[in-house]
Specification:
It is a single chain. This protein is an alpha/beta fold. 41% of the residues lie in helices and 22% in strands. The strands form three sheets. Strands 7-8-6-5-4-3-2-1-9 form a nine-stranded mixed sheet, with helices on both faces. Strands 10-11-12 form a three-stranded antiparallel sheet, with no helix packed on it. A hairpin with a 2-residue loop joins strand 7 and strand 8. The structure holds S-adenosylmethionine and iron/sulfur cluster. Residues 31-32, 34, 74-75, 77, 108, 110, 133, 135, 171, 173, 202, 204-205, 207 line the site of S-adenosylmethionine (SAM). The site of S-adenosylmethionine has 16 residues, from strand 2, strand 4 and strand 5.
Amino acid sequence: MPPVTPPDHPTRDAGFGLYLHWPFCAAKCPYCDFNSHVRHGGVDQPRFLAAFEKEIAHAAALAPGRTVTSIFLGGGTPSLMAPETVAGLLDAVAGAWSIASDAEVTLEANPTSVEAGRFRGYRAAGVNRVSLGVQALNDPDLKRLGRLHSVEEALAAVRVAATHFERFSFDLIYARPEQTPQAWGQELREAIAHAAEHLSLYQLTIEPGTPFFGLAQTGRLVPPDDDVARALYDVTQEICSGAGLPAYEISNHAKPGAESRHNQLYWRYGEYAGIGPGAHGRLVWPEGRTGTLTEKAPEAWLARVERDGHGIVETEALSAEDQGDEFLMMGLRLAEGIDPARYAALKGRPLDAGRLAALVADGLVAQRDGRIAVTPRGAPVLNAVVAELAA
Ligand SMILES: C[S@@+](CC[C@H](N)C(=O)[O-])C[C@H]1O[C@@H](n2cnc3c(N)ncnc32)[C@H](O)[C@@H]1O
Ligand code: SF4
């Protein structure tokens, strides 16, 4: 494996981020395969907080001396945490590393009125950006998606977010069963009227093991076919670009400068620690880039952390091959694309000139200012483009 060379110095290039996973939800949505669990008996937040504090201290010992540039409280549903729990987490981070003065601190929230009631407390705890799971702007679809909020409640939560946070985003899921490009276009325009600087727009994925998967297999749920899905994607790009929210990543749209810095860090192949049940990390140790993964089941993670001081169950030294592939897979999601020199430094060899030229000739990839990016034509077939370039 080649040594970590200067172009791959991640804390200089892309920052150092922390991902903290809160694995609980009020109800499980039928399309979701995230590591999220419902605990009707309640969750012992002080006990989980104590475990997070331990794992944060452990991560700081693995990656000492960094300056934290972004923190992402993801889930599950982090907005089920009491503001005191969030404050405890952020205090633990501040005790473990220095934090950049302009660090982005995002919390994922479900837009119910109960959760919006906690936004002021989150702001006081140090959160400066929220990402709300609005998902749809029509009540029948919200119901079909198994959501616990109405459109009215979600929009009220968006307004509360706007009063407490200088930055907020919301998520919508499109390519829902029976959704037409016209209906989606109308919904998206309405969403943009309520949005600020950032929107995440995900095509519905039918994930194996979810109730939606079972329904799709038996024909009781019919996702849009490829042509309709493509038309929905095209409408999304057209409307968002026209509204000044171009895609900076396959599913993420922002005003220039308002991109999610934490997610950018993943896509730019930066360094981050993953803390909490089922969290992935990518740490750059003197001996090379290393992947970490923690125990997924919340109570088993808790028991491990209480016993060992951390919940890491897998530590993998990434080979040059792995790093080049990961870098390509993440970086080509971005409109800005990748620096081929950094690819060559990670992978140990440059991109294959012949394959690259063929993709450029097919109009799937473009070379601009020394960078390589997927074109709008290549974006819907991104996986195939990555596979071709990585070969
Ligand atoms: C961890 S969840 C978000 C936070 C919060 N629990 C919520 O649901 O509002 C992240 C986002 O992934 C998206 N998502 C989850 N499952 C999906 C699926 N099967 N297809 C497309 N998008 C999905 C949703 O938009 C969701 O808001
Ligand atoms: S979509 Fe969000 S609220 Fe629904 S189960 Fe997944 S993580 Fe929980």
